[in-house]
């Protein structure tokens, strides 16, 4: 187990862990978005409820879900360790120099962005995942089979203006976090190439805009529909 200790105690090892867990979470976001977009289908929630059922009962998906929680915690812990080491190595912050203008606002504030996203994640898990698992969720029948009507819970949540706005704003912070994290993860892993790095950077920027935007559109559309 010494390799685990060496990885967690070395700066390079921690950065590699940050990159690997970050890329896994990016992949999770894409899959999660595909499932959540089913909330916008005009089928009374059938597709989303069946999707939610499969997410909770498919053995492979359950293993991946557990792994996802582990990677989220690991990503958070390693980021805290790296931040503490950086502060210890530089107890007095440097004044902004000409070099600082070459870095983006997101790259200089990844810790703040990560903290805001963590707060969103806690609220989001409490309002949905926890309720789905342990709350009194109503059921609905499709072809004689009973499913938890998680679609109804989501609809009711996004009808609340404060929560819809909270979700949209949080997706804005996620976009900034991804705008630096996507390309940075590949760079940390040494996947740099004069020809392909610009492509990776472009894909990262596109992902950072498109994915949070689509996530944000879901509560906006549901809220607008609730007004009618």
UniProtKB/TrEMBL annotation:
<feature type="transmembrane region" description="Helical">
    <location>
        <begin position="207"/>
        <end position="224"/>
    </location>
</feature>
<feature type="transmembrane region" description="Helical">
    <location>
        <begin position="60"/>
        <end position="82"/>
    </location>
</feature>
<keyword id="KW-1133">Transmembrane helix</keyword>
<feature type="transmembrane region" description="Helical">
    <location>
        <begin position="16"/>
        <end position="40"/>
    </location>
</feature>
<protein>
    <submittedName>
        <fullName>Succinate dehydrogenase cytochrome b subunit</fullName>
    </submittedName>
</protein>
<keyword id="KW-0472">Membrane</keyword>
<feature type="transmembrane region" description="Helical">
    <location>
        <begin position="161"/>
        <end position="186"/>
    </location>
</feature>
<feature type="transmembrane region" description="Helical">
    <location>
        <begin position="110"/>
        <end position="130"/>
    </location>
</feature>
<dbReference type="InterPro" id="IPR011138">
    <property type="entry name" value="Cytochrome_b-558"/>
</dbReference>
<dbReference type="InterPro" id="IPR034804">
    <property type="entry name" value="SQR/QFR_C/D"/>
</dbReference>
<keyword id="KW-0812">Transmembrane</keyword>
């Amino acid at each position: 187990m010494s390799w685990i200790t060496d990885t967690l105690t070395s700066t390079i090892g921690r950065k590699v862990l940050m990159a690997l867990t970050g890329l896994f979470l990016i992949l999770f976001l894409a899959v999660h978005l595909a499932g959540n977009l089913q909330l916008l289908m005009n089928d009374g929630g059938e597709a989303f409820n069946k999707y939610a059922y499969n997410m909770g009962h498919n053995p492979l998906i359950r293993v991946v879900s557990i792994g996802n929680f582990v990677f989220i915690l690991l990503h958070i812990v390693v980021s805290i360790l790296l931040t503490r080491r950086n502060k210890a190595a530089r107890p007095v912050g440097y004044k902004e120099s000409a070099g600082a203008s070459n870095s983006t606002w997101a790259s200089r504030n990844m810790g703040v962005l990560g903290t805001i996203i963590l707060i969103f994640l806690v609220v989001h898990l409490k309002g949905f995942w926890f309720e789905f698992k342990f709350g009194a969720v109503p059921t609905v029948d499709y072809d004689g089979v009973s499913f938890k009507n998680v679609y109804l819970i989501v609809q009711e949540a996004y009808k609340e203006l404060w929560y819809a706005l909270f979700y949209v704003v949080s997706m804005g912070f996620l976009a900034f976090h991804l705008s630096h994290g996507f390309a940075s993860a590949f760079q940390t892993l040494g996947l740099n190439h004069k020809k392909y790095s610009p492509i990776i950077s472009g894909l990262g920027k596109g992902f950072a805009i498109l994915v949070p935007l689509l996530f944000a559109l879901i509560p906006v559309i549901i809220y607008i529909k609730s007004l009618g």
